[in-house]
UniProtKB/TrEMBL annotation:
Keyword match Protein transport: no
Gene name of the encoded protein: dapB
Chain positions recorded as (S)-2,3,4,5-tetrahydrodipicolinate binding sites: H157, G166, T167
Protein name (Swiss-Prot/TrEMBL): 4-hydroxy-tetrahydrodipicolinate reductase
Native organism: Halorhodospira neutriphila
Job of this protein: Catalyzes the conversion of 4-hydroxy-tetrahydrodipicolinate (HTPA) to tetrahydrodipicolinate.
Length: 269
């Protein structure tokens, strides 16, 4: 049976990759595509926007209609869309695969509310490599984190609107949780001026925004006399799109709950 997929943010960089990934998947098809109301993509063919030729799916601006048309919704858009998308999924009883980063409190609580009614996969990064990186970072934190200065360094393209990246924050959280620290209290975002000496309990974040970098993350554990650097580099957005489509197939068969990519890959907590 083919999984019908509705894509929110279909005209964006990720949205177009997702249309392509869905159409490459013999077990899935594009059921609906949505983008920002009033945007120039609305009314155009989603396949043509993605450079795949006409698919007969017109980009709309109503998440409720899209959710009703699909078995699963995949949303890689902007936080402004999240609450309406969560409400649409709740009304139609559809699982949601959410890739949007930079969510605020209201959006996170809308996602948590939806997860009580349907399966929600929310991952800051849908690549298999970053999912593995997170597990390795936790292992390193357990072994040497307490005796190291930990810094998270990330680089992305010039169009990215939030910083640090959702993945960088997730990696910092993984270190903080493993070491029994609260990231909200120990995070230091960038440094400037007379900062004073570094406090070992802090976790530092450094952000680079330049050119067309798809996404790079390094977690640095620096002690006295040596350091360990764990790095992941994405070279194509296709890796996130393929992971999200895999998550959509998985979510379609799950009971309500909030899941992440580790659950999808069967890597456990
Ligand atoms: P983009 O700016 O190229 O695309 C965003 C799209 O969403 C645009 O087409 C825009 O018109 C549309 N949009 C804006 N408001 C909307 C609304 N209210 N309703 C419907 N559509 C709306 O951005 P992008 O590079 O494709 O990234 C999109 C999101 O995905 C960002 O939050 C980014 O950080 C995130 N992202 C996540 C992963 C991951 O693996 N989780 C990977 C890459 C990007």
């Amino acid at each position: 049976m083919s999984t019908a997929i509705a894509i929110v943010g279909a005209a964006g960089r990720m949205g177009r990759m997702l249309v392509d990934a869905v159409e490459h998947d013999a077990a899935a098809h594009l059921a609906a595509a949505v983008d920002r109301a009033g945007g120039e993509a609305v009314g155009r063919d989603a396949g043509e926007l993605a450079g795949r030729g006409r698919l007969g799916v017109t980009v709309g601006d109503d998440p409720a209609a899209a959710a009703a048309a699909g078995d699963v919704v995949i949303d890689f858009s902007l936080p402004e869309a999240t609450e309406a998308v969560a409400a649409a999924c709740a009304a139609a009883g559809r699982p949601l695969v959410l890739g949007t980063t930079g969510l605020g409190e209201a959006q996170r609580s809308a996602v948590a509310g939806l997860a009580e009614r349907t399966a929600v996969v929310h991952a800051a990064n849908y690549s298999t490599g970053v999912t593995l990186l997170t597990a390795l970072v936790e292992q390193a934190a357990r072994a040497i984190g307490a005796h190291s200065d930990v810094e998270v360094i990330e680089a992305h393209h010039r169009h990215k609107v939030d910083a640090p990246s959702g993945t960088a924050l997730r990696l910092g959280e993984a270190v903080a949780d493993t070491l029994g620290r609260d990231l909200a209290e120990c995070a230091v975002y960038g440094r400037e001026g007379r900062t004073g000496e570094r406090d070992r309990e802090t976790i530092g974040f450094e952000t680079i925004r330049a050119g067309d970098i798809v996404g790079e993350h390094t977690v640095l554990f620096a002690g006295d006399g040596e350091r360990v650097e764990l790095t992941h580099k994405a070279s194509s957005r296709g890796t996130f799109a393929a992971g999200a489509v895999r998550a959509a197939h998985w979510a379609a068969a799950q009971p309500p709950g909030l899941y992440d990519m580790r659950d999808v890959l069967g890597l456990g907590g």
